[in-house]
Amino acid sequence: YLVEHEPDFEPVRTRMIVTPQYLRIDDGRDGGDFLLYHRGERTIYNVAASDTLIIVIAPQTVKAAPIPLEHRIEPDAAEAPAVGGKTVRHYRLLTNRDTCYDLYAADGLLPEVVTALREYRESLAGEHAQALAFTPKEMQTPCDLANNIYAPARHLAHGFPIRMDESTGPDGARVRTTELLDYKQGFAADEALFRLPEYRRITIQELRRR
After folding, report:
1. Ramachandran category for residue 71: left, alpha or beta (phi over 0 → left; psi -120 to 50 → alpha)
2. In this structure, are residues 103 and 92 in contact, taking their beta carbons and an 8 Å threshold?
3. Cα separation of 208 and 32, whole Å?
4. CA distances from 75 to 90, 101, 163 (A)
5. Which end of the chain, C or N, has fewer beta carbons within 10 A?
6. What is the pLDDT of residue 202?
7. DSSP states of 25-66 as a string?
8. Which uninterrupted H or E stretch holds 69?
């Protein structure tokens, strides 16, 4: 269970359920909207219950970055309070001298979740890359390009993120803070949570052409 904060918006609570086959992301309720990532297919299904629609996002190739990107990590020697018996450390992840992530991560915590999130982020990067053609140049900042396309899983290289501030806008603007609230392991999730409803399906490319 996570909570996300963005400027001028109410905090949003998120639930992630991870199995060897799937990653499901929702608001903590079993009905309604949810995102399902099929790990074997590397395909994302965005389910919109109110529209009875499923948007299908298949993996796509990521081409070269439009500008040079230089990544750097600045670790902090100080330790934060441990989580789940795992040491938490502080890092700043930079691209072209801009701070893109201010990160507290627990190395060795929930490794199966870290792996699933890495797969999901890398699969989603292809769609973000395709969307560059429709993104204003001023929004294609080094952090936006790095975080979403060219280094989409770098914040997972240090363990599970306990808290992270993400900046993608110019001069560190558009900050989103994500924090871990709670977690549990070893339970049997209802298989119905990983079944897609009989809704109309449309690919993200078809949706964009509308």
Report:
1. beta
2. yes
3. 23
4. 6, 12, 15
5. C
6. 96
7. EESS-SSS-EEEEETTTTEEEEEETTTTEEEEE--------S
8. none
